Amino acid sequence: MGQLTVLALRVVLGALLAGSVAVQTVMVPLLASDLEGLDPDHAYLRTPFLLVVVLGVVTAQVVLVCVWRLVTMVRRGTVFSHAAFRYVHLVIGAFVAAALLVFTLGVLLAPGEAVAPGVVLLLGGVGLAVLGVALVVLVLRMLLAQAVARDVEASRMRAELAEVI
To answer: How far are the Cα atoms of 64, 91, 103, 126 from residue 70, in angstroms, in the given order?
Structure first.
């Protein structure tokens, strides 16, 4: 990966991480104060809704930090090692958690007339899409495992060839 590509990706990751911190520190308190005005029939949704939003931002931050670490490993040439699996596993877990949070939000909003049924159906679709991203990353993890195995085998063969020579 070229230096310019790494720099551009790090700028994007840094901007997204800064934006997520701004959401946590500014937008969530504003949302909490706006939700204080809910009618009594829906007041029970305030805390779970805020919890889903905060945890959703945390899952995004986990993914951003892990991608930053993986980009660092790519730049150093150490991505084809067992250390990379830790970050890939965290990314998969974060996407699964995000999908569960979206499904939870749909379940919270489904009863009653708080939102239209189409919105709940859309949330189900978004949750399914996020779960699909987790599965794509799982497939990429399998490809990483094959690459690591081949790298280990190539190192072993180079060592054997060095002994023969």
So the answer is: 10, 11, 29, 26
